[in-house]
Amino acid sequence: MKGIFSWLFPSPPSCPFCGRSRGNFFCCDCCWEELSSWRRDLHPCSLCGRLLPLGEGKLCPFCEKAPPPFIARAAGPYRGLLKELIWEFKYRGRRSLAFPLSQLLGQVLFRDLKGYRPDLLVPVPLSSQRLKVRSFNQAELLASSLALSLGLPVEPLLLRVKDTPPLVDLSPRTRKQLVQGAFRVEGKRRLEGRKILLIDDVFTTGATVGACAEALLLSGAAEVIVLTLATGIINSPPSFL
Ligand SMILES: [Zn+2]
Ligand SMILES: [Zn+2]
Questions:
Q1: 241 is a domain residue
Q2: Closest ligand (CA of 51)
Q3: Ligand nearest to the CA of 50
Q4: What's the 206 CA to ligand 1 centre distance in angstroms?
Q5: Is 109 within the bounds of a domain?
Q6: Which of 13, 102, 136, 202 has its CA 20 to 30 A from that of 239?
Q7: Residue 71 to residues 59, 79, 209: CA-CA distances in angstroms?
Q8: How many Å lie between the centroid of ligand 1 and the Cα of residue 130?
Q9: Cα Rg of the chain, angstroms
Q10: What's the CA-to-centroid distance between 135 and ligand 2, angstroms?
Q11: What's the 58 CA to ligand 2 centre distance in angstroms?
């Protein structure tokens, strides 16, 4: 009997983040409001994408000092619901979040990068040790899901040639030194003139994606745009500059 009712009156699709009904959008209005409300107070640095208070200049203090070899954008600051979702996805293995989280990345492409169309999506690789512990690379799942929606190819063509310790709590300078030369493009593959969309989950100091971008550019890529789920907020000039 229940089967007939659910066929006659199908329940509305549920939000992949909170389980409430969601209408036609990929998540419900409440989650969308929470995930996009930062736009009322913050705007991305036009190069690295870290978030600055509205009304502050176009560039953050880091990029004013040393412009990175890429442009980056993120779906929002690493806090609140977005932080919880990344935690669930990355550390609690909730892989079903890959598709809805990749839709957040798609929204950033559409909204902040004006429908930018790359030639290829490339995920940031995990170190082999971390891959053993986690059993999946979150950046690869995100890149595959986004590539599927966009109808674009995805290739995990970056290799980590040097394992690095977890970079949390290290200064930007130490991070940069540790990841320098840590990546190379598989099989000396040439990427002449190709526009690459590099995917990762969180942008912290940009040291990891910077080292990845350098490897891709050295192999001939025309440009590298970085897309992550979350990034940091810069409230005031950081003291460690
Ligand atoms: Zn929801
Ligand atoms: Zn910046």
A1: no
A2: 2
A3: 2
A4: 30
A5: yes
A6: 202
A7: 12, 22, 10
A8: 30
A9: 19
A10: 32
A11: 8
For residue 78, the CA-to-ligand 1 centroid distance in Å is 18
Question: pLDDT tens track of the chain, all 241 residues?
Answer: 556 666 666 667 899 999 998 888 899 999 999 999 999 999 999 999 999 999 888 999 999 999 999 999 999 999 999 999 999 999 999 999 999 999 999 999 999 998 889 999 999 998 767 777 777 899 999 999 999 999 999 999 999 887 776 666 667 777 777 777 889 998 878 899 999 999 999 998 899 999 999 999 999 999 999 999 999 999 754 443 3
Residue 2 lies in a domain: no
Q: Against a cut of 0.70, is the pTM above it?
A: yes
User: Is residue 12 situated within a structural domain?
Assistant: no
User: Ligand 1 centroid to 30 CA: how many Å?
Assistant: 6
Measured between alpha carbons, how far is residue 26 from residues 19, 22, 32, 88 in Å? 12, 7, 9, 18
Which of 51, 41, 37 is CA-nearest to residue 231? 51
Reading the block at residue 215, the tokens are: 């490897």
Domain that holds residue 122: 48-231
Q: What single DSSP character describes residue 220?
A: T
Please name which ligand lies nearest the alpha carbon of 85. Answer: 1
How many structural domains comprise the chain? 1
